[in-house]
């Protein structure tokens, strides 16, 4: 298993305390896309701190959660090799995971493989460069002349466009009948939360921020404190953001 733009094991507590809240904004749209869930076998791939798996269970599903980081929720397994038989699940979710894998096409094929005929794969990613938070981070990096390290981007032949068409095409390429769209919500969290996630090395921005020498990190923090003002309201971070959500159906009929 492999992950990119994701710092690897050791980030579970920092993720739960910081960026998990941002990702959770997309979870209601994920749940809405796959209801009704009563009695369904659901696999949550890249389960993070487990809050989506808990919501899926709350909606009546039988949920198996996996994550390559043994400190995250579920048991230790990851893309592109899931330890399940073909067609083992009615619904497979991968929320903000395909943007962290080394081979997105192999990962999508594996999500499709473990999905039953007539079952669905639901995936979300962040669209590249267009969200309020990514534009804020770009201004922070620009203020200090910091450019992301080469390790954060996939080689061109493995990468896919981080757009509605890009994620839709990825699932279609795995043989799924797919609809993709943008979903939006208002994020609401503590002012320093996104900085703390990045400083802990979480996600693509974390790889860039945490990789800087201490004095550059301090300057980036000062730039964050300035730039975050544009996204703040009443001493909270409060802004509209969007993710790309795709639902891919495996051809065939689901039994029952
Ligand atoms: C941004 S977090 C999203 C967590 C959760 N799905 C959510 O929506 O809150 C990305 C998660 O993907 C996991 N991950 C990274 N590489 C992975 C891989 N190759 N296969 C499965 N999960 C992976 C990370 O350990 C992390 O828990």
Automatic annotation (TrEMBL):
Task: Note the InterPro entries from the entry.
Answer: Methyltransf_11, SAM-dependent_MTases_sf
Q: Does the keyword S-adenosyl-L-methionine apply?
A: yes
Report if keyword Cytoplasm is assigned. no
- Would you kindly state one Gene Ontology biological process term found in this protein's UniProt entry? methylation
Q: Which GO terms describe its molecular function?
A: methyltransferase activity
Annotated ranges, domain Methyltransferase type: 43-122
- Pfam families noted in UniProt: Methyltransf_11
Q: Which UniProt keywords apply?
A: Methyltransferase, S-adenosyl-L-methionine, Transferase
Coiled-coil segments = none
This chain belongs to which protein, by name?
A: Unannotated protein
Q: Which organism is it from?
A: freshwater metagenome
């Amino acid at each position: 298993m492999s992950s990119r733009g994701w710092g690897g094991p050791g980030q579970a507590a920092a993720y739960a305390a910081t960026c998990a809240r941002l990702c959770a904004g997309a979870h209601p749209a994920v749940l809405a896309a796959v209801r009704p869930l009563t009695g369904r076998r659901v696999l949550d791939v890249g389960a993070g701190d487990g809050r989506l798996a808990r919501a899926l269970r709350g909606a009546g599903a039988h949920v198996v959660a996996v994550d390559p980081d043994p400190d995250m929720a579920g048991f230790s397994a990851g893309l592109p090799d899931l330890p399940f038989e073909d067609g083992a699940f009615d619904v497979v979710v991968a929320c903000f995971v395909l943007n962290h894998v080394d081979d997105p096409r192999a990962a999508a094929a594996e999500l499709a493989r473990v999905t039953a005929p007539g079952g669905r794969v639901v995936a979300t990613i962040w669209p590249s460069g267009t969200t309020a938070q990514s534009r804020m981070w770009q201004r922070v990096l620009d203020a200090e002349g910091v450019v992301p390290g080469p390790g954060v981007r996939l080689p061109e032949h493995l990468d896919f466009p981080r757009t509605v068409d890009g994620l839709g095409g990825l699932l279609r390429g795995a043989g799924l009948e797919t609809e993709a769209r943008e979903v939006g919500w208002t994020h609401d969290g503590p002012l320093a939360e996104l900085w703390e996630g990045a400083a802990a090395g979480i996600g693509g921005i974390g790889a860039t921020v945490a990789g800087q020498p201490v004095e550059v990190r301090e300057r980036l923090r000062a730039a964050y404190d300035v730039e975050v003002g544009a996204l703040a309201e009443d001493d909270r971070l409060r802004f509209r953001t969007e993710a790309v959500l795709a639902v891919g159906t495996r051809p065939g009929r689901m039994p029952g």
